[in-house]
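Dear colleagues,

As part of the handover before I leave the project, I'm documenting each prediction I ran so the next person doesn't have to rerun anything. This entry is a single chain, and its sequence is reproduced below.
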Amino acid sequence: MALQREKTAMRNQTPEKRKKNFNEVPLGYNIDEAINEANRCLQCPTAPCVNGCPVEVPIPEFIKAIKENDIAKAIDIMKSKNNLPAICGRVCPQEEQCEQVCIMGKKNQPVAVGRLERYVGDQALAAIEKQADTTNQADQGTTTRINKKEKIAVVGAGPAGLTAAADLAKEGFQVTLFEALHDTGGVLRYGIPEFRLPKGIVDKEVEEIKKLGVDVQLNVIIGKTITIDELFAEDYKAVFIGTGAGLPKFLNIPGKNLNGVYSANEFLTRVNLMKAYKYPEYDTPVKIGKKVAVIGGGNVAMDSARTALRLGAEEVSIVYRRSEDELPARNEETEHAKEEGIVFRLLNNPVAFQGKNGRVNSMECLKMELGEKDKSGRPRPMAIEGSNWMLDVDSVIIAIGQNPNPLLTSSTSNLKTESWGGIIVDGSLSTSIPGVFAGGDTVTGAATVIKAMGAGKKAAKSIMEYLSN
């Protein structure tokens, strides 16, 4: 059989249809498509894809199981390392990780590891639902796992915290997961739109972690409701901090406080967590008007722009100070945004917001050109003097990054942090406080879901080593 050089295509909603709803855009593989793609895997003995995965999923093994149509085996292999496969298959940048080092990708398109991971994750959730349908309701709930080991506190129910909690619970530790918000998931719930990650998927995967014996406590703010010192006083033997990066960065330019100028955090939280996308079913509307500008070029900027379009905006612009080659967003997200009609105003930078009656109505921009590379390794954007121009807007969304929220660190004495707010850790993710570990965005700044999960796994291992010693 001839070698298939390109990935097996995945079906999507058409742009005209999807930009008017919040349903998931990619529709996923069916069994025939999954097996077809699995057949492209070369089963390399060196398996570089595994080294490219932050949580070290045995990629060739689970793909081989798909190829043999043994989906139950593929699920077991996948979940031996990844507690959130249906989520990762949707939002992780596989093209920069496992697929980037795929041997098939040297001369052809790499194996679609992410799409296959999503397929296995979805099949795992379907199998759980089928089992629940045939099980007496009284027998459902958490497992009868008996925890005999020490109590451990995990702070933050985002990808890092969920992963650490699951790995520790699997080893028999008594894990309590504390979350400041009224629901779990962290950025998975408040940051990523429904059309990229349905919240029903998050709910189901979190429920599986609860079944491991993890006790989830919502509406608990560590540092306010209870301190880390008080956790130790309640006989917790170790603490993992995975509170993410929820503090938005703003542009320090005139007009930044006008109504209609949102941070992406606020905008996406209102839409996703507070269900503004379901207005009027939920009485949480977001006023955006007809013309929206999104400042930034990452995944959060794409999410914000595509969300604004679905809320009814007639023209949505991405304003980014570098060129398309430097866009940090995933290629898939950029392509989907273009297909949906998002306008890309590249090599432009806002310098002021102007308004009327306290609300933004226009944005002054300056054209840019690229110079020598800066510390980030990207060409430095330089202003072209006298190139100012005006863009009419009804709303502006600032999506230029996030830093860790200082609430916990500012209320915890002796916890050392970087000047920008990140918690300082050593190679084992230990902080300056004995028994306290940290990982994910609260250490690195805003990164990816899978890197946060990798930190959660590493921290769980370090905690077990710490307690054994």
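The first strand starts at residue 151 and ends at 155. The chain has a mean pLDDT of 94.

All the best with the project,
I.
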